[in-house]
């Protein structure tokens, strides 16, 4: 039904009021003007932002006045993200500890550690979330290594994990999601507890 409505809107140059369960605000209503539909995706102009975006058709439904969302109950609940490292740390530490991690924080860095069999902490973290505002190059001048070419990072949030590709983000919320995914998948308690 949604595909047919999108195609009709394209033919007529009309706009549609839809609920979209993707992107950064799942379930949000938006007015779109469809441009094309292909391979389960629709290119449309979002009349709220004025931008042309691509939407996944199966995550979209028409808004019908007085009719509750049919998709809302089938979509996973939105992931809660926090505004600050303080808020994230205080709200997630217990959940991370329940996965078997020793959670440490130093400034804007949160790291997850395992312990040796004797209970002593392994100093190198398995997973880390940190804020690095400045990037620089290390230069050897023949006598010593110095920092050079300091510059502001456009993606200052860094998520690293053992045997994983390090990821960088401009958005703290996206960094939190990746950090928690790594924390679950690499949990010291094993995959059986993470299901």
Automatic annotation (TrEMBL):
Organism field: Thiobacillus sedimenti
Protein name: WYL domain-containing protein
